[in-house]
Amino acid sequence: MQTNKQTKKKKKKSFLDLEDTLLSLKQNKGKNLFRLVGIFGRFYMLLSIFTFISLFFVKDSNVFGAKFECITTSLLIFIFGVINGVLIATVTTDGDITSNNHRRMFLDFFEATNGGKILFTIVSSYILFTSITLPVIQYFIAKKTKDRSTKEASQLLRSIYNKFNSKEAFKEVLKTPTFVYQLRNIAIKEFSVENVLFWENYKILQNMNHRYFVETKKAEELGNVNLVDLYDFEGYYQEQIQYYNTTVEDSYSYNSNLSVPAAIIPYYDQFYRTFIKANCPAKVNISYKIVKAIESEIVKPTVGIFDVAKDEVVDMMYNSIYPIFLKKNKKQLEETFNLNK
Which keywords annotate this record (predicted)? Predict the structure, then answer.
């Protein structure tokens, strides 16, 4: 018994014992040499499965992005690590090869995979594919999609530009207060803000006329026309100044040859002194002929006294600031006027 114990002690080799490594491998006695490798291998397998599970809680908008790469790589490392561990454990166990077909199969597989190295070569190749090749493929797919989208967007913007490049379209733009506000900002930079201010105040005058018409109708229905004089036109005017709006006048048709009501004349006179009269604060650059016609009529103005001047100012805005506006607001125009419908 003592002799057997001594024999076993002699057979048991320490990791630090000096011996012929190549001979030990050939005699299938070098198992201790790979013990540290096995420990780290098991640790890395556990780390891989932990990473695999943890990554499921990570959000990634890209289907084949970093999350996909890490999950699949961790899974492959774990699976191939288990397979390699089973192979190593099987082929390093003593036994009769000829009588154990199951072990013979593992040995053949071990030999076919070049000692399990091919398994990790597959993992390395997969890592290179997902980290280099796949992103390159995705880049070209995204580039192709982007080019197609850019082309479609360019065609859409071109159609928008062509549609809104007409003077009729510009008049529609002038009916939208938000667009008029943007035109004013452009005009400030182009040193022609007086044209937009002229347009805004012209619309206010038309709204004033419309309000007088509405209040007169109400007074007539009540049987006392003089009630219209009690209406606060100054308050209405200030409201129009503060909250510029075009919706009232858009649905209002008027006779341009009618005389301006006495209650509205001060606002016409103020408009004339602001935009038409020589050396006025915001004089618009309209033709001399139109200026003279307005000067001769301003004493007893008609409702449409400024209509011809308005047309010329609109032409100036159309030719000067509207092209700049189109370049900056194509998409907004399309959304506002529903070109896709």
Answer: Membrane, Transmembrane, Transmembrane helix
Non-local CB neighbours of 222 within 8 Å, separated by 6+ positions:
none
Residue 12: phi and psi, rounded to 5, are -75, 120
DSSP class per residue in 270-321: HHHHHHTSTT-TT-----HHHHHHHHHHTTS-BTTTTHHHHHHHHHHHHHHT
For residue 56, what pLDDT is reported?
Answer: 73
Are residues 256 and 304 in contact, defined by beta-carbon separation less than 8 angstroms? yes
Upper half-sphere CA count for residue 217 (Cβ side, 13 Å)? 6
* Residue 164 CB burial class (10 angstroms; 0-12, 13-18, ≥19): buried
Whether the predicted model's global pTM rises above the 0.70 cut: no
Q: Which residues pair with 161 in a beta bridge?
A: none
**What whole-number distance in Å separates Cα of residue 257 and Cα of residue 209?**
13
Among 89-103, 123-137, 240-254, 271-285, top mean pLDDT goes to 271-285
What is the C-alpha separation between 30 and 20, in angstroms, rounded? 10
Q: Check: CB of residue 302 under 8 Å from CB of residue 272.
A: no
Is the separation of the CB atoms in 221 and 311 below 8 Å? no
Which of 275, 286, 262, 268 minimizes the C-alpha distance to 198?
275
Which residues have C-beta within 8 Å of that of residue 83, sequence separation ≥ 6? 116, 119
Can you list the domains of the chain with their CATH numbers? 21-141 (no CATH), 165-337 (1.10.167.10)
Instruction: Select the more confidently predicted residue: 71 or 107.
Output: 71
Alpha-carbon gap, residue 286 to 309, rounded angstroms = 7
* pLDDT band at residue 198 under the 50/70/90 scheme: very high
209-242 residue pLDDT tens: 999 999 999 999 989 988 898 999 999 999 888 8
Q: Is 319 exposed, middle or buried (0-12, 13-18, 19+ CB in 10 A)?
A: exposed
